[in-house]
Amino acid sequence: MPPDSRSWVTVPAPVRDLFKLFPLRVYAAEELPSRAPQPTRVRPSLYVFALDGDCARPSFNPSCLKWQTFLRIAGVDVDLIPSNNHASPSGALPFLLPSSTNSGSSPPLTGGKIQKYAQDNATKKIPTIESNRQEAYRSLITQSIRPAWLYSLYIDPSNAPLLKTLYLPPSPLLAYSLHHTLVAAASAEILKTTRTPYVRTAQLYADSATAFAALETLLGNDAWFFGAGSPGLFDAEVFSYTWLILDETLAWGKGGELQKSLAGFKKLVAHRQRLYEWCW
């Protein structure tokens, strides 16, 4: 048997003769092209929950709105980018990509790092408040107001259409699954925060009303919390809930317990409007 016939592919004689005249030349492997440089960012980019076309407005998510507002208080101009948790390196929004002037990539900033970035790059004065005092009152928001917010938006059936608009995908199958996931996550966070065996709706709203009353007393007749001459981080955090709770464009459901409660605290309502006008 001829040697060539043992190959699993028989090369025709004319082609074989051609390669004998012009043998293949194997070139050395070339290096892969360098990665294309990242485009420079003239302004920082803040990735938040936002509806398309609403980037000039406050975010509909309290955590995002807190930092969006604080950056505005500090006079740091940012480009607002609608996003979702899956796009975040930490798995949660918001995150900030600082401005860049070269091809080097800047690490994304979250939480306290956004605060430090805002303070380091501020063009407006940010009041200095004793951290211990601020943290003591901040617990009113995290322990009493946030659980009521979570129940109102994620669990209250009357707000299911709003939840769908803000967070659920258009696909009914995906929306059904994600809706149950969000409700379960909200319930778990409420139980963890309140340290109760089950969700007590009436108690949640009662606790939030008590927190609103305490914040109203703290604000008193001052324009900003802690008697500061200009708004600070605590003002932004309070605003991140008061603005959204009373935001009529969100089309809240018929229950409205949280809305009715907050509307009765006129100084907080005035603070809400004052800070909106300051920042927007």
UniProtKB/TrEMBL annotation:
<dbReference type="Pfam" id="PF17171">
    <property type="entry name" value="GST_C_6"/>
</dbReference>
<feature type="domain" description="Thioredoxin-like fold">
    <location>
        <begin position="62"/>
        <end position="159"/>
    </location>
</feature>
<dbReference type="GO" id="GO:0007005">
    <property type="term" value="P:mitochondrion organization"/>
</dbReference>
<dbReference type="GO" id="GO:0001401">
    <property type="term" value="C:SAM complex"/>
</dbReference>
<dbReference type="InterPro" id="IPR012336">
    <property type="entry name" value="Thioredoxin-like_fold"/>
</dbReference>
<dbReference type="InterPro" id="IPR050931">
    <property type="entry name" value="Mito_Protein_Transport_Metaxin"/>
</dbReference>
<feature type="domain" description="Metaxin glutathione S-transferase">
    <location>
        <begin position="211"/>
        <end position="275"/>
    </location>
</feature>
<dbReference type="Pfam" id="PF17172">
    <property type="entry name" value="GST_N_4"/>
</dbReference>
<protein>
    <recommendedName>
        <fullName>Metaxin-1</fullName>
    </recommendedName>
</protein>
<dbReference type="InterPro" id="IPR033468">
    <property type="entry name" value="Metaxin_GST"/>
</dbReference>
